[in-house]
Amino acid sequence: MSQYGLLIDYEYCTNCHSCEVACEEAHDFPPKARGIRVFEDGPFEYGDSQWNWNYIPTPSNRCDLCAQRVTNHQQPACVHHCLAQVMKFGRIDDLVEDFKAKPRQVLWMPN
């Protein structure tokens, strides 16, 4: 799985936590022992009464990119269940091209 990763476009994450719940369910993790967690960045003011508040889905060291699901030709649970469709799974070489095209994204690769 080392040639695969997740591209996360956090500009549109709505903080619904569906990625966290899907991960817990797919792996039967105990509560709060997730392979992915949504972190908050903000709120902060960056202009004249303009505010920013980001939600950033961040995989943890428990994430194996749902190796069993991928072996069965399925998307990782977090990608499949993301309501805002801000996550993309694929080969790192392919994801790098998308990563370069747009700011406010995170490219995550497992160890």
TrEMBL record:
PANTHER family linked: ANAEROBIC DIMETHYL SULFOXIDE REDUCTASE CHAIN B-RELATED, PROTEIN NRFC
SUPFAM superfamilies in alphabetical order: 4Fe-4S ferredoxins
Keyword Mitochondrion: no
Domain of life of the source: Bacteria
Protein name: Oxidoreductase
InterPro entries: 4Fe4S_Fe-S-bd, 4Fe4S_Fe_S_CS, ET_IronSulfur_Cluster-Binding
Pfam family, one: Fer4_11
Domain 4Fe-4S ferredoxin-type: 4-32
Keywords: 4Fe-4S, Electron transport, Iron, Iron-sulfur, Metal-binding, Repeat, Transport
UniProt key word Glycosyltransferase: no
